[in-house]
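Notes from the 1:1 (GR / supervisor)

We went over the backlog. Supervisor wanted to see one worked example end to end before approving the batch request, so GR pasted a single chain during the call. The sequence is below; no edits were made to it. Supervisor asked that the structure be written out right there so they could see what the output format looks like.
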Amino acid sequence: MSEQIELQTSGNMWKVLVKVGDTVTQGQDLFIMEVMKMEVPHQAGISGTVVEVNVKEGEEGLDAGMIAIVIE
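Structure output shown during the call:
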């Protein structure tokens, strides 16, 4: 089973905390977005291995609905 972590809102990517190949646990922070001057962390919904990272630190103007990370 895999999970696609989708951006829930538009904003800027402040910090990416994982890379492809990393093992993550459910609830672990994967990245932190800056949305209207607030830091918004996004967590893993499942435990597994990161197979895709489609965002980079410092990226600006990201749109809601974008698939940021895929975990298998």
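Supervisor's comment: DSSP finds no helices and seven strands in the chain.
Batch request approved.
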